[in-house]
Automatic annotation (TrEMBL):
Biological source species: Massilia litorea
TM annotation in the entry: none
Identification of the protein by name: GNAT family N-acetyltransferase
BioF2-like acetyltransferase domain boundaries: 180-295
Entry keyword annotation includes Transferase: yes
SUPFAM superfamilies (alphabetical): Acyl-CoA N-acyltransferases (Nat)
Key words of the record: Plasmid, Transferase
Pfam families in alphabetical order: Acetyltransf_6
Gene Ontology molecular function terms on file: transferase activity
Top-level taxonomic group: Bacteria
Length: 348
């Protein structure tokens, strides 16, 4: 007689006893898969670091992430894009992705305790990075401590953006605008009778964007198809808006495209017809962008700029002048030599 098993067995093991088949071992979940789930649960992950954004920008296989966990919970992460150029491995970030870099769970305790914890988490992220010949990422402006990266041979360049930290009071935001900006906006509406529409196609923006680059003798550093792919991902999640200033005949003069998450909006793409710069379309359109952003999120990040003329213009919108870090490292002697030559030529 076959003895009866009185001890309960796991379902898969019981199945193997009855059928004689050995069950397949459960598949380990990769850090990237865990990060995907985490992005759906953690609203403080910046928009540009979220898995769906990176999927849209470089494809699901074009990026990876390192994570630090406490138990089963992710407490630090750093996504990156890996590209190979002439056998050189480059860790960076995609086009139209102004922010990447590390995310850390908010730490508690005394300042010294928090800094110690940040240093440990960042070191753990650095230790997991794959080998590379060049690394470069621009960090979120809230990430102020890059010292563990310095200790590991990285370099840092400070850039600046303008941020409106509180969009809750539109009257105050209007009052904080430079007086000349307010006059330009008023003139755009009264004298030139411009209107701002939110029903124009993405093709209108792309054409205006090309005109902006052409005026400088440049071409956009991204394709129309790339922008459409990002736009489709954002539209699916209802986190993007395109506003276009038009004249009384419906001719598009300027467009602003921005995206947002729960915490901030980010100016991403803009463009203007240079023949109509005198109308104030850009100022009107940007102000309406800020007004709309106030209805969907908390802050507005203008995402730049280090270009002197653009900085002077954005300054007039009353934002805080906020530093952010571009962190880099180039272990490759060949790439380091190239960078030195280009830097020397640029300083001549």
């Amino acid at each position: 007689m076959v003895p009866i098993l009185t001890t309960a067995l796991p379902t898969d093991l019981a199945h193997s006893v009855l059928t004689g088949q050995v069950p397949e071992p459960s598949r380990a979940v990769s850090p990237k898969e865990e990060y995907r789930l985490f992005c759906r649960q953690e609203p403080s992950i910046p928009l540009f670091s979220r898995d769906w954004w990176l999927d849209a920008a470089v494809g699901s296989q074009g990026w990876d992430v390192v994570v630090v966990k406490k138990g089963d919970v992710i407490i630090a992460s750093m996504p990156y894009v890996l590209r190979t150029r002439y056998t050189m491995r480059v860790l960076s970030q995609p086009a139209l992705t102004p922010i990447l870099g590390p995310w850390l769970h908010e730490l508690e305790g005394k300042l010294a305790t928090r800094l110690s914890g940040e240093n440990e988490l960042m070191q753990a992220l650095i230790d997991q990075l794959p080998s590379f010949d060049h690394f470069a990422q621009a960090w979120h402006h809230s990430r102020r401590n890059w010292q563990p990266f310095y200790w590991n041979g990285f370099q840092q360049t400070t850039y600046y953006t303008y941020v409106l930290p509180d969009l809750s009071n539109l009257k105050k935001l209007w009052a904080e605008l430079d007086g000349n900006i307010r006059r330009i906006i008023a003139k755009a509406e009264s004298k030139h009778r411009l209107q701002v529409r939110d029903d124009m196609s993405l093709d209108v923006l792309l054409e205006l964007n090309r005109k902006t680059f052409e005026r400088q003798g440049l071409v956009p550093p991204y394709t129309d198809e790339f922008v459409r792919r990002l736009d489709a991902a954002c539209a699916e999640r209802n986190c993007r808006k395109l506003l276009v200033a038009v004249d009384p005949h419906g001719i598009p003069l300027c467009g602003y495209y921005y995206v947002w998450d729960e915490n901030s909006a980010y100016g991403l793409i803009s463009g203007a017809d240079p023949e109509y710069r005198h109308t104030g379309a850009a100022s009107l359109c940007l102000w309406e962008t800020v007004r709309h952003a106030a209805s969907v999120t908390r802050q507005y990040n203008f995402c730049g700029s280090m270009i002197r003329s653009v900085e002077a213009y954005l300054r007039g919108f009353g934002g805080e002048h906020v530093p952010y870090f571009r962190v880099s490292k180039t272990p490759s002697p060949l790439l380091s030599l190239r960078q030195c030559i280009l830097s020397h030529m640029g300083n001549r």
